[in-house]
Design a protein that fits this description.
single chain; mainly alpha; 3 helices; elongated
Length: 98
């Protein structure tokens, strides 16, 4: 058995309060989910925002990688059709891994 002790170190980040209007039924649903997870609605909302933001940033990063790949391939290949075929193959391979 490994006796190493792992310590979670969280860097404090600057916070800014935000006020949003949420439909009552949505807030009630959030409260039910938060209760099942034994967390506050605020913590649950932060979790959901963080998850959505990470997904969006990953998607944008992937799009930038594909754009860069297309640019590099276009500089090495003469056929635009071949470049597009390679990009489609990359996209297909990446969606199969998700």
């Amino acid at each position: 058995m490994n006796d190493d002790v792992y310590e979670l170190k969280v860097k404090p980040r600057a916070m800014q309060p935000v006020t949003i209007n949420v439909p009552s039924d949505t807030l009630e649903a959030l409260q039910r989910v938060a209760d099942t997870r034994e967390m506050s609605v605020t913590a649950l909302m932060k979790l959901y925002i963080g998850q959505g933001l990470r997904q969006e940033l990953a998607k944008r990063f992937g799009e930038r990688v594909l754009e860069s790949t297309a640019s590099v391939l276009a500089g090495h290949l003469e056929s635009e059709q071949e470049v597009n075929s390679i990009l489609r193959e990359i996209q297909l391979a990446s969606t199969l891994r998700e």
